[in-house]
Amino acid sequence: MNAIKRLTIIVTALLLCFALFPPNSSAQSKFKDIPNNYWAKKEIEELVSKGIINGYPDGNFKPEQYVTRAQTAIIIGKAMQIDTKYRPNPGFADVKSKDAAYPYIAALVERGIFSKGKKFNPNNPLTREQLAKILVEAFALQGTTKTEFKDVPKNHWAYKYINTLVATGITTGKTSDKFDPTGKVTRAQMAVFVKRALDYQEKQIANLNPFVKEVVYLVNKERAKEKRPPLKLALDVTRVAQLKAEDLLKNDYFDHVSPVYGDVDNMLSKFNIKFQYAGENIAVGQRTPEEVVSAWMNSPGHRSNILDPVYTEIGVGVVEIGSIGEGQSVYYWVQMFVAR
User: Fold this and answer.
1) Pairing relation of β-strands 313-324 and 328-339?
2) What is the pTM of this model?
């Protein structure tokens, strides 16, 4: 009798647990029109959780609704965590400063992600060719592929952007031989494309030389001591800083002015990086990130660059020169700072 009583208690407790915590409750969709098996559910809900994209007050997401150019500016700006303060008015006749998308449009135009013109056409649906350019420029995507599309000839204005987008695996064609460049982009597609671009960026940063990430960590540690905001590691600026480090080694010089690229302003501009302010630190002979950051912090000019509150992003380049006693390697080091 006691055994039956105990079994009854256990079964009752299990039933209560299932009632309070139903299986897969976390898989329930946040939106009425996004079923649990919807193809883009994961990407949509991740971007919503990060505040990059929103649903509607009625509890729907409207995944098949076309995304507009104004909505795109907001989504891309938030995904980039772009600073919208103090941006010049881009002067579009159809964009007012009180519009919700205005600060993002202004910031993205200044960065060269959206083009200048008489009109922005904020309510026009975004096209796939436009999205290709935006994603490549916004997330510093790189890559080429032999994949060709019949409707994207090599003289098409967006050919290189579409080629890069396909090379990085962020999207494919509508079919095996057609991209549909003028096709409109839905809200669900936008969520997936942006999520893949962010994943690409995260993977690229994860694969960087550990010294690069350590230098950025140490720089931000020094900035925190002075109550300065942290600098964001920028992939595109890091690529240029790495080229500068390699240039120092290849051309055997130690100067802020490269015989190939010129000074930091010229070099960044050569690689189509738009900026408001830029600075550079270089060093030679240090063995570790700790050594080089310590050396820079003990030099007034270099320290000033590291702590300058104007800068918001950093790129770091490192190249090995050779080794000294006991096989310890020494390096050229480059930091590039930008405010965009």
Assistant:
1) antiparallel
2) 0.85
Secondary structure of the chain in HEC code, one letter for each residue: CHHHHHHHHHHHHHHHHHHHCCCCHHHCCCCCCCCCCCCCHHHHHHHHHCCCCCCCCCCCCCCCCECEHHHHHHHHHHHHCCCCCCCCCCCCCCCCCCCCCHHHHHHHHHCCCCCCCCCCCCCCECEHHHHHHHHHHHCCCCCCCCCCECCECCCCCCHHHHHHHHHCCCCCCCCCCCCCCCCECEHHHHHHHHHHHHHHHHHHHHCCCHHHHHHHHHHHHHHHHCCCCCCEECHHHHHHHHHHHHHHHHCCCCCCCECCCECHHHHHHHCCCCCCEEEEEEEEEECCHHHHHHHHHCCHHHHHHHHCCCCCEEEEEEEEEEEEHHHEEEEEEEEEEEEC
Count the Cβ atoms, other than its own, within 10 Å of residue 284: 16
- Spatial CA neighbour of 130 closest among 218, 64, 70, 63: 70
Task: Assess contact for 58 and 31: CB atoms under 8 A.
Answer: no
CA–CA gap between residue 146 and residue 160 (Å, rounded): 12
**Residue-wise pLDDT tens digits, 281-313:** 999 999 999 999 999 999 999 999 999 999 999
What are the residues facing 322 on neighbouring strands?
A: 330
Element (H, E) at 2: helix 2-20
For residue range 151-188, what is the model confidence (pLDDT) as tens digits? 999 999 999 999 999 999 999 899 999 999 999 999 99
Residue at 220: amino acid letter: N
Sheet holding 313-324, edge to edge: 232-233, 313-324, 328-339, 277-286
pLDDT digits (tens, 9 = 90+) for 222-268: 999 999 999 999 999 999 999 999 999 999 999 999 999 999 999 99
